[in-house]
From TrEMBL:
Name of this protein: Exodeoxyribonuclease 7 small subunit
GO biological process: DNA catabolic process
Molecular function GO labels: exodeoxyribonuclease VII activity
Coiled coil spans: 22-63
InterPro entries: Exonuc_VII_S (IPR003761), Exonuc_VII_ssu_sf (IPR037004)
Keyword Endoplasmic reticulum: no
Gene this chain is encoded by: xseB_10
Signal sequence extent: none
Record's keyword annotation contains Coiled coil: yes
Keywords recorded for this protein, A-Z: Coiled coil, Cytoplasm, Hydrolase, Nuclease
NCBIfam families noted in UniProt: xseB
Enzyme Commission number(s): 3.1.11.6
Length: 65
């Protein structure tokens, strides 16, 4: 899935699936490496999205006051 088409909810769901797969122990070492790398990308995406949303909300609140 392209990052530009990814939503926060989709990223969160994919992260939850990765965590479940890791916790279940069903991943081999190669797959584990890829999943951890993808989780890192998803975490960065979510963090960026939350920061942007926070900034937009703050701007709206500042305009109201």
């Amino acid at each position: 899935m392209k990052e530009s088409a990814l939503t926060y909810s989709q990223a969160k769901q994919e992260l939850e699936e990765i965590v479940s797969a890791i916790e279940s122990g069903e991943l081999d070492v190669d797959a584990l490496t890829e999943k951890v790398k993808r989780a890192s990308e998803l975490i960065a995406f979510c963090k960026e999205r939350l920061t942007k949303t926070d900034e937009e909300l703050q701007k709206i609140l500042d305009e109201i006051n």
